[in-house]
Design a protein that fits this description.
The complex is a heterodimer of chains A (479) and B (490). Chain A is mainly alpha-helical and 479 residues long. Helix content of chain A is 65%, strand content 3%. Chain A has 17 helices and 6 strands. In chain A, strands 1-2 form a two-stranded antiparallel sheet. Chain B is α+β, with helices and mostly antiparallel strands. Classes of the chains: A mainly alpha (479), B alpha+beta (490).
Chain lengths: 479, 490
């Protein structure tokens, strides 16, 4: 029988709730909504449209979806970084406006030529946005602590490899679109499993590298002032390289192959802190490039087109040539939303979203968009710096860098900085898989940023009472 | 792990910076090139929504824009499309533009600086902006005659007529030609199929033979030899040249022979006058060797060969090619080997002789007009330099009159004295079994030249006509064009 607990101190005053940035997030989301609606109105005005129902539909859908997302963050990850979601919302909104704008151009074109009006893409993309946000909320709800993901590392890795290899192994009738075997198409719906494999493999690699980290950092031989890894530790690099080459061979896709290799190399560097791994990886990369260049005609064509897009303008150089015309016509200020002709570029709504935006928003608009991306990525990397566990650091760094590299590859390709490879601009381009997968990616980043910014759980404050105040007890001698 | 993450962050910033720098390069430094590239249809598309200026010649409208109901608000229309096609060019939404449509684009679309004042007033008065008009130097009567002459016989060829005193181009024909109307269609299927048909046509139709193709001038080049010989002071029309039916090229075993292997007259030598009239190859090969490469080359350059011209369309430079040795010089002197002239260049040569040796810049645009047809700028005749002395020009004229009076062939004009030279040029890999390109160059009236003409008919006008000559095939065309230019009927 215990005496009533009268000794415990009165409960301390509850501290003022830490500012978690949710208010800022809401304000910025509203700002993004204003910008996107403004963009939509410009498009409608310049395309001489009336306030149609589709306009209302797009605008309302946008506002509704992100309000839900905001409350999900408030509920499940209250300390998450407040800048990430508004950046994503703005990018996604601009993407929707641009896709709608290109729809109008397609319809116009069809009417002018007396052809059947094509199905508008905007409806689908809004649906994909909804699915993406649903997955975003689900991910926040299910993954309450990112460290639990480490437990499923090998499952994720296996699933990732299967997803990655699946289109390559399936018959072309299901998996091939425009020469790249990246798809699984069932009826009208197509999925690019590679986009999801990207996240799964980053999770796997983060867990794997954290687990084996000590192994890799054991010194190997020193050579030219660098510590070279032991041969058997090269396995992950070889795996990464093999996977990239596999994608390239099986699926004809340079972009994804480059992306995977780059991500894994960066993660390896973060995990080992060894520059030597980077150098060896880059050597692998250049060897792979050289071999691919000599083995595959389509790689040679890409390089040729990159060097001189106007040499074969009528055929292979047409896409990139048109993209350059589009960007050049846009110039510094752009033609204004809805006032250019971005639809002249093939794949204007997906691979060449950059040139579509560049033509109508100009260099100024593109620079702004790149800065939004930069904010998004640096906020991710900041979370990686701040989070306390190694797995979280590695995961956040991997996810953020994946975004960065993808943007570099696709934007660089569309503006002739590097050879063109087919990838989508995250959140901006038309494409369901990319959008949904990137929402999952952002959910994980938010989850990690929540862990990084949340105050440390307070230890139970039950200080022992001073010994002198301890009461005496009568202890019966055992019989 | 934080150090590598910070470095990754720096790497990401570098990547974004690289993208921005490259975009700056594309959208600022190269922007002008990309924007104005003829393959970039954007400018064209925005221009379609403005009223483009008209192209006219002597009060006849050749190309104009009429209002339509579809999204591209104006439709380009060409009257007598095929006759003027090589001059006006086409103006296609998908395939860009050519000819005057391209070369005078800034005037026609209204962006030319000379139209600035008008643009400003458009802006203030709120009037729909529209382009300026281009008036050509072309004489529709001469153009139509020249086109009919070639087209009626199914010839592949070109005619250029120039007013010698000014360099105004009175006619510039290339056959077979194309109709620019379907290429300007707003129906892209129609545009497509017309483009494919035009692009794949054989003989090609989209090329303007008068300025974009070069041909061996054959015997018409002997005018340049003669000019060089007379200018050297060592030769007069009466100087005697070899009359041998064939000569061996210096340092080789190859022989060069006269047309049909004939001797140049009955005596062992022939005068320069007779050699030019009979167009004796042996005489001019020897003459060329005697004058030397430099003299021939200088004389050719003085007539404008090797110069880049724009009329305002760019003209392919003519050339006399590399002349490594005397044997090559002997062949080049009779307008063979690597000598290649555009029909325009050959017309310039006779125009220069007709103009007393003064080379005039050939041009097609007479005047630029504002939207309201007020003149904004007029092209002044431009002297490019002196090719020969007036006395040499006079002597050459006499020699050419002597030529014309000896020529057979139809179309002589009573009361008008023409000065001319014919040419029959071998070409191809198997020259003896390929019909020759045939030429006729001349001007009239000889004592007061009003028009200089060059006629070229590819392959003698007939794949099987191995015996075609300039006098028989090209001569009558040239005379008909001269008659039209001098105001006669067809």
């Amino acid at each position: 029988m215990a005496a009533p607990d009268t000794r415990s101190e009165p409960a301390p005053l509850a501290p003022a709730p830490l500012p978690n940035g949710r208010g800022i997030e809401l304000v910025l989301l509203a700002f993004a909504a204003v910008l996107v609606t403004g963009a939509l109105v410009l498009v409608e005005a310049n395309q001489e449209q009336q306030l149609t129902r589709s306009l209302l539909f797009v605008g309302l859908a946008y506002l509704g979806l992100f309000t839900i997302a905001h409350f999900a963050v408030r509920r499940f990850a209250p300390f998450a970084d407040p800048l990430i979601l508004p950046c994503v919302a703005l990018l996604n909104g601009l993407g929707l406006v641009m896709i709608h704008r290109l729809d109008l151009a397609e319809v116009d074109q069809a009417l002018a030529l007396g052809r059947d009006v094509p199905t508008e893409l905007i409806g689908r993309q809004v649906a994909w946005t909804a699915i993406g946000l649903a997955l975003f909320v689900a991910a926040l709800w299910l993954v309450r602590d990112h460290r639990t993901l480490a437990r499923y590392a090998y499952t994720a890795g296996f699933a990732g490899i299967v997803l990655l290899a699946l289109p390559g192994l399936l018959p072309s009738s299901i998996s091939e679109v425009n020469g790249a075997k990246l798809w699984i198409r069932v009826g009208p719906v197509g999925i690019q499993p590679g986009e999801f494999a990207k996240i799964l493999l980053i999770v796997f690699f983060a867990a794997f590298l954290v687990q084996k980290r000590d192994l890799f950092t054991t010194a190997g031989r020193r050579f030219l002032g660098m510590e070279l890894p032991r041969a058997r530790d090269l396995a992950p690099l070889l795996l990464a390289w093999g996977m990239s080459v596999g994608v390239l061979v099986l699926e004809n896709d340079l972009g994804t192959s480059l992306l995977f290799f780059g991500i894994l190399l960066a993660m390896l560097y973060v995990a080992t802190e060894r520059v030597s791994w980077m150098l060896i990886g880059l050597m692998f990369f250049f060897a792979g490039c050289t071999i691919a260049y000599h083995l595959f005609a389509h790689v040679r064509v890409r390089v040729q087109v990159w060097l001189d897009p106007f040499g074969d303008f009528a055929n292979t150089g047409y896409q990139i040539g048109q993209a350059l015309f589009s960007l050049g016509t846009g110039g510094v200020g752009g033609t204004g939303l809805g006032a250019g002709r971005p639809d002249l570029v093939p794949f204007a709504e997906s691979d060449f979203m950059l040139s579509s935006l560049g033509e109508e928003l100009g260099l100024i608009g593109l620079a702004a968009i790149l800065v939004i991306y930069l904010v998004l990525i640096t906020r991710g990397l900041r979370s990686a710096l701040a989070v306390r566990d190694s797995f979280g650091k590695l995961l956040a760094a991997g996810l953020a860098f994946a975004l960065a590299l993808q943007i570099f590859i696709v934007a660089g390709g569309a503006s002739k900085l590097i050879p063109l490879t087919g990838l989508t601009l995250p959140f901006l381009s038309y494409g369901g898989s990319s959008l949904v997968a990137n929402y999952a990616l952002v959910a994980l980043l938010l989850r990690i940023s929540h862990a990084a910014r949340a105050p440390l759980p307070r230890r139970p404050a039950t200080p022992l009472p001073p010994i002198a105040e301890a009461g005496t007890e009568l202890v019966e001698r055992p019989r | 792990m934080n150090t590598p993450i910070r470095r990754i962050a720096i790497a990401v910033m570098v990547m974004i910076l690289l993208l921005m720098s490259n975009l700056t390069y594309v959208q600022v430094v190269k922007a002008g090139d990309y924007r104005n590239d003829p393959r970039n249809q954007r400018v064209l598309l925005s221009e379609y929504s403005r009223k483009r200026g008209q192209i006219s010649a002597n009060n006849q409208i050749l190309a104009s824009s009429v209002e339509t109901n579809d999204r591209l608000r104006y439709q380009r229309q060409y009257s007598d499309g095929a006759v003027y096609g090589p001059i006006t060019g086409y103006y296609s939404v998908i395939y860009g533009s050519s000819g005057i449509e391209r070369a005078s684009d800034s005037v026609l679309n209204g962006s030319d600086d000379r139209l600035f004042g008008r643009r400003l007033s458009d802006l203030i008065t709120g009037r729909d902006p529209s382009g300026g008009n281009v008036v050509l130097t072309i004489d529709p009567n001469v153009q139509q005659t020249a086109y009919d002459q070639l087209q009626r016989n199914g010839y592949t060829g070109s005619v250029v007529a120039i007013r010698p005193q000014t360099g105004e181009i009175l006619a510039m024909v290339s056959t077979p030609s194309f109709d620019p109307n379907p290429l300007a269609s707003h129906n892209s299927d129609q545009q497509n199929s017309a483009w494919k048909a035009d692009r794949d046509a054989n003989p090609p139709v989209l090329i303007n033979r008068a300025i974009s193709e070069t041909y061996p001038p054959g015997s018409t080049f002997k005018l340049i030899d003669t000019a060089a010989a007379l200018s050297s002071g060592r030769y007069t029309p009466d100087s005697q040249l070899t009359a041998a039916p064939r000569v061996t090229l210096q340092g080789t075993n190859t022989t060069l022979e006269n047309f049909n292997g004939n001797a140049c007259g009955t005596s062992p030598t022939a005068s320069l006058r007779d050699a030019l009239q009979r167009s004796c190859n042996t005489a001019f090969a020897t003459l060329g060797a005697d004058l030397g490469e430099q003299a021939i080359r200088d004389q050719a350059n003085a007539f404008g060969i090797g110069q880049s011209l724009s009329i305002p369309m760019p003209v392919a430079p003519s050339t006399i090619g590399d002349i490594p040795d005397t044997a090559a010089l002997e062949q080049s002197a009779i307008g063979q080997r690597d000598v290649a002239l555009t029909p325009l260049q050959n017309a310039m040569i006779v125009a220069t002789i007709a103009n007393g040796g003064q080379v005039m810049a050939p041009h097609l645009v007479k005047e630029i007009q504002s939207q309201e047809l007020d003149p904004v700028a007029t092209t002044e005749p431009d002297r490019l330099g002196r090719a020969i002395d007036p006395t040499v020009a006079r002597t050459l004229t006499d020699l050419m009159v002597n030529n014309e009076n000896s020529y057979q062939g139809a179309g002589k004009i009573t009361g008008v004295q023409i000065a001319a030279k014919t040419g029959t040029a071998e070409h191809g890999n198997d020259p003896k079994n390929t019909p020759p390109h045939v030429w006729y160059v001349g001007f009239a009236p000889a004592n007061n030249p009003q028009v200089a003409v060059a006629v070229l008919v590819e392959n003698g006008g007939d794949r099987n006509n191995l015996a075609a000559t300039g006098g028989a095939v090209a001569g009558p065309i040239g005379r008909a064009v001269i008659r039209a230019a001098l105001g006669g009927g067809q």
